[in-house]
Amino acid sequence: MQRIIVLNPKGGSGKTTLATNLAAYFACHGIKTALIDYDSQGSSTDWLERRPREYAAIQCISAFRHPHGVTRSFAMRTEPGTEVVVTDTPGALDLMQFSHLFAQADAILIPVLPSAIDIRAATDCVNKLLDNVQVRDPERRIAVLANRSRTNTKVYKKLSTILTEMRIPFITTLRDSQNYVTSAEEGIGLFEMQQSGMVRDLKSWEPVIEWLVGRGCDVQAGKDKGDKEEKHSPRQVPVSQGAG
Predict the structure, then answer these.
(1) What is the pLDDT of residue 221?
(2) Which one is the CATH code of 2-234: 3.30.450.40, 3.40.50.300, 2.10.220.10, 3.30.10.10?
(3) What is the pLDDT of residues 191-205, one digit of tens each?
């Protein structure tokens, strides 16, 4: 089972956008996926509740809720056969409180907005992870991506320079696109939407998927299995070969 954590202690960085689209990506490729929502705002849970039934199923684990009638450990169990678990962490996160999750993680993705405050918060988060939390092979398992950013700005170049010095991969930039608004409203992922107008956004995700494949998330195995299933998303689009 591959465990992917989306992390940024600062709110509004795009954690839920990243987590939900990752979960949808794996699910629509036939990979049995669970999405764990630790954020008290419940945005990932709301997204899953909007998800149409004809789309690939994703298990929802609302970790911020207190379970009724069962133990917490039972409520947090993934379904048998789960291959990928994507975790959406809360804002104002206490890294030490969640240290057990980071120790188990195969990949930790940190989305960053293009502002000096957000860059400072992200670099502080990375430093704390490297100094205080047991992360296996941190230089291979932690990566940063820019969210709603333009690559020709000074603040973008500053972020790139800082991460290079820290030896943390800076893998891609996600656009400020209406497609993400549609994705959030409809409970579907970018890879499940109509292809018209999606090319630039899908292209920006290719480095994310390639990086995750390098961490052991084998999309092709799930895709082969998913191709044999009768139930498909009516608007699912193929992923380009560059996406792994």
Answers:
(1) 53
(2) 3.40.50.300
(3) 998 777 788 899 999
